[in-house]
Amino acid sequence: MPNMQPKPSFLVGLIGSGIAASRTPPMHEAAADAAGIRYLYKKIDLTELKLGAEALPELLTAAKRMGFDGLNVTHPCKQAILPLLDELSPDAEALGAVNTVVVRNGRMTGHNTDWFGFAENFRRNMQGASLGRVVQFGAGGAGAAVAFALMKLGVQELTIIDVDLTKAQSLVDSLSPRFAEGRLKIGHDVVATVAAADGIVNATPIGMDKYPGTPLPTTLLRPDLWVAEIVYFPLETALLRTARVLGCHTVDGGGMAIFQGTEAFRLFTGISPDPAVFFATFSALGR
C-alpha cells in the first residue's frame, strides 16, 4: 500500500465587526488549496453575534479550546486584544496593534502584518520612487502601520497630517524613538508640505464608497508626485483617478490587503503562499 501521509490541516478565524463581505477567508482558503493543505477559515462576526470587543477574552479561550491554529483580528479588536495575549512580536509591540494571532502549544502570540502588507505592495509597484520627503494623511490604526512601513522603507522625512492633531502627535511620539531624530514630524500647512514632497500616502478612509472625496485638494497634485492609497473599496479612488490622469506614479490599496494576508498565512502555516492566488481571488471577488 502507498504511504498515505495525512495532509497538514489548519483551523483559522477572523474576529471583527461587520466582516460578512471580507475577502480574507476565501483568499486564504484558495492559497491553501493551491499549496495542497487542508485549511478551514471561519468568520467570527461580532455584529452578527451582537457582541463587542469585551467578548474577546471568552472568544480567545474558546478558540484555544477548539484547536484554532491562528486568528486574524480587525476592527474593533486590534488594540483591545493586546493585554489578552501571551506574547507580542516586536512589530506588534511597536505599533500597539495586532491583526494576526498565532496559537502554538496553548500560547497566543500577536503579530502585525499590516505594515508588511503596505511595504511589500510599495516595493513591488513603486520601484525608483523617491523617499526623501513623504506626506501621510491619516494617523489612525492603519496610519500607524503605514507610517512604520514608510520608515522601514527608508523615507528620510515623513510628515503626518491628521484633522485630529492629538492623534498625529501621538503617532509621531510613539514611533520617533525607534528611528533617527527628526525623521517624523507633524504637518500643519497642507499646501506648503505637499509642495515640498516627493510622494503622498492616503491612510484615511476618505475615498471609500461610504466616505467619498479626497484627503487633500486635488489641485495640489502634480505629475512628479507619487501617490499611494490604502483604500481598496473601490480600487480606484477619486485621489488615484486624478493622480493617474496627471501622470503621477500611483499604487492602489489592494496589494496591502493581499500582502498582509500572505504574511499572516505564512505565520499560521509556515508555508509562503503564492501571492498570485491571493490576487486572483481578490480580483474575482471584486467583480
Automatic annotation (TrEMBL):
GO MF, one annotated term: shikimate 3-dehydrogenase (NADP+) activity
Entry's EC annotation: 1.1.1.25
This protein's pathway: Metabolic intermediate biosynthesis; chorismate biosynthesis; chorismate from D-erythrose 4-phosphate and phosphoenolpyruvate: step 4/7; Aromatic compound metabolism; 3,4-dihydroxybenzoate biosynthesis; 3-dehydroquinate from D-quinate (NAD(+) route)
Catalysed transformations (reactions): shikimate + NADP(+) = 3-dehydroshikimate + NADPH + H(+)
Keyword NAD attributed: no
Residue ranges occupied by any Shikimate dehydrogenase substrate binding N-terminal domain in the UniProt entry: 14-101
Pfam families registered for this protein in UniProt: Shikimate_dh_N
Residues given in the record as NADP(+) binding sites: G138, A139, G140, G141, A142, I230, G253
Keyword NADP: yes
GO biological process terms on file: amino acid biosynthetic process; aromatic amino acid family biosynthetic process; chorismate biosynthetic process; shikimate metabolic process
Keywords for this protein: Amino-acid biosynthesis, Aromatic amino acid biosynthesis, NADP, Oxidoreductase
A GO cellular-component term linked to this record: cytosol
Annotated shikimate binding sites: S22, R23, T24, T74, N99, D114, Y232, Q260
Catalytic-site annotation from UniProt: K78
Coiled-coil region list: none
InterPro entries attached to this UniProt entry: Aminoacid_DH-like_N_sf, NAD(P)-bd_dom_sf, Shikimate_DH-bd_N, Shikimate_DH_fam
Quaternary structure and partners: Homodimer.
Function (record text): Involved in the biosynthesis of the chorismate, which leads to the biosynthesis of aromatic amino acids. Catalyzes the reversible NADPH linked reduction of 3-dehydroshikimate (DHSA) to yield shikimate (SA).
UniProt family annotation: Belongs to the shikimate dehydrogenase family.
Name the UniProt record assigns to this protein: Shikimate dehydrogenase (NADP(+))
